[in-house]
Automatic annotation (TrEMBL):
SUPFAM superfamilies: Alkaline phosphatase-like (SSF53649). Keywords: Signal. The lineage of its organism: Bacteria, Pseudomonadati, Bacteroidota, Cytophagia, Cytophagales. This is Phosphoglyceromutase. Residues 1-22 form the signal peptide. It comes from the Bacteria. The keyword RNA-binding does not apply.
Length: 362
């Protein structure tokens, strides 16, 4: 019965899209997250307190040539060159609190599962989503709503470095393929690259039990995108948060830099492929922030208020090229779900979701 109601809602959304799509050029969505990457690094580059600290950097001075400059504007370009060239030029970047441009998560847990639920569903659910345990999400994500629509059914894919993503997306109920944790590419038509990635994932042991290294997540996603041409893609990179928990600022910085390179590869492929070029919006954000002092930056959660502070960015045919947003205001991760549906020319079916980020939609 529940699935019948869900399908009816999705059909109504699809009918709404028929009328609204004329004003929208976005036909595809790439929603990309990176776990626990602070707004401070995004907008100011490597942190002067941490960049050469003996307890946080294994080899003293190892970050300075690549990532340090006294000017924070230059530092951020060194750390995230794609972000501060292409996205700044052609998209929008929110969350520089120096200008009063604030982005927060609205859940009070301030850790990963609640953060991803908020991003993917459009609202916080502190009563039910209050741990990182592997329990199926009772809420319906934007991915699941879309996968129930004829226009998108079977064209929604999800990838993640963290092995909890199949539960966040509720793969069992939604029917969305989720390659996450230490999952492998499966099926009778594996490419040579997928076969090699499967082998390497078996042979290269990362430092964490529940999170694989981001290169596996990225290349599984790229191969599947090239092979299956999905319309809706979610990718959740994970390394920065886990390196931060281990107090490895050097690895945190290098993972952030690599994440930026992955964004460039994704966007270059989008812009070079007829199905995606000028028809795709890419939205980028994080699930939570973290502390600002040496004693607190390794953590997040309700005991660290700064962990509510995040950032987000968007680039695509319906997002005006306004660069770094400097107007004062407060935005929330919970606003992304309804905004994504508006970009696709539809209204989000869950009334609990946050409002549209109007400036992100032309």
């Amino acid at each position: 019965m529940k699935q019948t109601i869900l399908l009816a809602i999705a059909w109504l959304g699809c009918l709404t899209a028929t009328h609204a799509q004329a004003t929208s050029n976005t036909e595809n969505i790439f929603l990309v997250t990176v776990d626990g990457l602070r707004w401070q690094e995004v907008f100011k580059g490597a942190d002067s307190l941490f960049v050469d600290d003996t307890g946080m950097v294994k080899d003293m001075g190892s970050l300075l040539d690549e990532f340090w400059d006294p000017d924070p504007q230059k530092r951020r370009e060194m750390l995230l060159p794609f972000f501060w060239s292409t996205i700044k030029q052609d998209g929008q970047i929110y969350g520089n609190r120096a200008y009063g441009n604030r982005v927060d998560i609205s859940n009070t847990m301030l850790f990963s599962y609640p953060g991803y639920n908020e991003i993917l569903c459009g609202f916080a659910d502190d009563e039910r989503i209050n741990s990182n345990s592997k329990t199926d999400n009772p809420n319906i994500t934007l991915l699941e709503y879309l996968n129930q629509m004829p226009a998108y059914q079977g064209k929604v894919l999800a990838f993640g470095s963290w092995d909890v993503f199949p539960f966040i997306v509720n793969a069992a109920r939604s029917g969305i393929p989720v390659n996450a944790g230490f999952s492998k590419a499966e099926g009778p038509d594996l490419t040579d690259q997928e076969t090699m990635i499967n082998r390497l994932q078996d042979e290269i042991r990362g430092p964490w039990r529940g999170v694989r290294l981001d290169p596996f997540t990225h290349h599984y996603a790229m191969e599947a995108i090239k092979k299956s041409a999905p319309k809706i893609v979610f990718i959740g990179y994970g390394e920065p948060d886990d390196w931060a928990h281990g107090n490895r600022y050097d690895q945190y910085i290098r993972s952030a830099h690599q994440f930026d390179a992955y964004l460039k590869e994704l966007w270059d492929y989008i812009q070079s492929t007829p199905q995606y070029r000028d028809k795709t919006t890419m939205i980028i954000t994080t699930d939570h922030g973290r502390g600002t002092q040496k004693s607190s930056w390794i953590g997040h959660g309700s005991a660290i208020p700064e962990a509510k502070e995040i950032w987000m960015a968007a680039i695509g045919p319906d997002t005006p090229a306004m660069g770094e947003m400097r107007q004062e205001g407060l935005w929330h991760a919970a606003m992304l779900a309804r905004t994504i549906f508006r970009l696709l020319g539809m209204e989000y079916p869950d009334e609990k979701a946050g409002a549209v980020i109007t400036g992100m939609v032309r």
